[in-house]
Amino acid sequence: MSGALMRAAEEVREDSETLEAREFSRESAANADFSDLTFRNVVFRACCFTGCRFDGAAFYGCTFSGCLLADCRFPVSFWSHSGLMGCKADGTDFRRSRFKDCRLEESSLRYGNLSGVILERVILRDVLLLESVLSESKLSK
Asked: The pTM is what?
């Protein structure tokens, strides 16, 4: 993991486990563990995450814009008023996650695991879900 993102994640783990009101641009992380962290009003721009773990993480008012999320794990994560905009998240695991009042736009989630995902009041626009698993997923409102 590089620079400011690595330092912020380490500080949050030691302190409150909530990363708030930050913006990260062009950061990269490989095989990093962000599990069980809470992100509030965090913006990720053109960041590259490869094989990272976000198991049980929560995202409130967060945006991933133009990011690469390759083979990342987000199982049982919670997303509220957040979004993926222009991202490539092929092979990513969102199993049993919940998205509420979110936007997924112009993104690729090919080969993703979205089984058991709950999408409530979510806008999906130009999202590529080719060969993704959507079993037991629920879409409402």
From this structure: 0.93
Quick: pLDDT tens for 92-108: 999 999 999 999 999 99
Our measurement of the distance from residue 59's CA atom to the centroid of its chain's CA atoms, rounded to an integer in Å, reads 8
Do 101 and 124 contact (CB within 8 A), yes or no?
Answer: no
pLDDT, tens digit (0-9, with 9 covering 90-100), for 106-137: 999 999 999 999 999 999 999 999 899 888 88
Which H helix or E strand runs over 14? helix 3-14
Can you tell me the distance from the alpha carbon of 136 to that of 9, in angstroms, rounded to the nearest whole number? 33
Task: Give the separation between CA 49 and CA 33, rounded to whole angstroms.
Answer: 11
How far is it, in rounded angstroms, from Cα 117 to Cα 64?
A: 19
Cβ neighbour number for residue 104 with a 10 Å cutoff: 23
The counts of H helices and E strands in the chain are: 1, 16
